[in-house]
Amino acid sequence: MQQLDFFIAGVQKGGTSALDALLRRHPAVRMADRKELHYFNNEKVDWRSPDLTALHRHFDWSVRDVVRGEATPIYTYWPGAIERIARYNPRAKLIVCLRHPMLRAHSHWRMEMTRGAETLSFSHAIREGRARVAGSPRGVNRVFSYVERGFYAQQMRGASAHAAAVHYLRTDGLWIDPAGEIAKIARFLGIDGVEYVPGPVNYLVPVDSSGMPPISEEDRAYLLAIYASDVAETERLTGVGLSDWLRPEYREPMAPPRP
To answer: In terms of pTM, does the model score above 0.90?
Structure first.
């Protein structure tokens, strides 16, 4: 029976492109023919009787003794996506990359500004601009959800409630120790008996926003206050240490060439 074994389900701007690229090098893994299939968040699919060929045609099914997966980081945020994955394959495993929500929000905004989808400054987008999300159907928005996607606790509750198993990792951990993080993922996926050396991590971004301004100290403090309780709850739910995120002086320990 053709079924995918795992999904990199979150979070957007959390290093999922780098993780996808690393796993493509693993001899025991087969990823989709492209990143971000956006199948389980597609509201045009008839979810009473979904056509799985639209999903499965992106995979090579000729190779045996491998695990197959795909990376679409909106899945944890999009209502119903994780439940759909669970109905598709109750044994499917999820991998979730966690990046500081403040920095995730700013990176998201930079991407949308560079794409031309956003016209508001970051300060306005994370304040008055949130009305665009609240006014969207079901209160979710694919473009302007800079702040909302950073409330991880609710998303992690959904993932844990519906998925067979979830592996959480910090994005900065992937940059600092890619071999160690991939080894943990290999154990999680049950492919740790296959030799694999990940090599260096390239900071991969779909849109180069390196020319955009850095986050201001005022906006940093504003978002830290918004996210403080959610960070603590996310730490409790995932078992991943996040207390350093609550410090005003926190900076990502990696220094990628592009934000």
So the answer is: yes
